[in-house]
Design brief:
Strand 2 and strand 3 form a beta hairpin. About 55% of the residues lie in helices and about 15% in strands. Helix 5 packs antiparallel against helix 6. By secondary structure, the protein is α+β, with helices and mostly antiparallel strands. It folds into two domains: about 70 residues, Glutaredoxin (3-Layer(aba) Sandwich), CATH 3.40.30; about 60 residues, Glutathione S-transferase Yfyf (Class Pi), Chain A, domain 2, CATH 1.20.1050. It has a four-stranded mixed sheet with strand order 1-4-2-3. Bound molecules: glutathione (GSH). Glutathione binds next to loops. GO terms for molecular function: glutathione transferase activity. Its EC number is 2.5.1.18. Homodimer. Interacts with CDK5.
């Protein structure tokens, strides 16, 4: 969410919510699913990371030029979600005990992305497609 607009030289206004603010409860109560991220694009308010990413994809013209590319973007996105889940567990549960194993397994976890990358212009381009456009958004995330 942060990286996509930055990569495309687009602005993203980010409100980082501290734990102290979050625990006050008023923001949680105002969020559709009681969770962050919350994403604002004009009068459109979105929740849930993947729909937000897909909205950014479409707004930045990065969601593939045809059905095939869209499907490949979805594959990469869901693969990334699985990878993130592993590291969220590492970070928020038993970091010291799990980190060695995570580092050892990382090359295997990155392999599918390398495979996808290698299938597009011999790894000389992006995972999907060749690349972009404009928008101003606000994003609430937790630190
Ligand atoms: N399915 C949601 C999950 C969002 C989520 O897990 N948000 C966490 C922070 S990363 C949260 O708001 N936790 C605080 C809470 O549940 O009170 C998504 O993909 O955006």
């Amino acid at each position: 969410m942060r990286m996509m607009p930055a990569d495309q030289s687009q602005s993203l206004k980010e409100d980082v919510v501290s734990m102290e603010t979050w625990l006050q409860g008023f923001l949680k109560a105002s969020c559709m699913y009681g969770q962050l991220p919350k994403f604002q694009d004009g009068d459109l308010t979105l929740y849930q990371s993947n729909p937000i990413l897909r909205h950014l994809d479409r707004s930045l013209r990065l969601y593939g030029k045809d059905q095939r590319e869209v499907a490949l973007v979805d594959v990469a996105n869901n693969g990334m979600e699985d990878l993130c889940c592993k590291y969220v567990t590492l970070i928020y549960t038993n970091y010291e005990m799990s980190k060695e194993n995570c580092v050892k397994e990382l090359p295997g976890h990155l392999k599918p992305f390398e495979t996808l990358l290698s299938q597009n212009q011999g790894g000389q381009a992006f995972i999907v497609g060749t690349r972009s456009l404009s928008l101003t958004t606000t994003c609430w995330t937790c630190c």
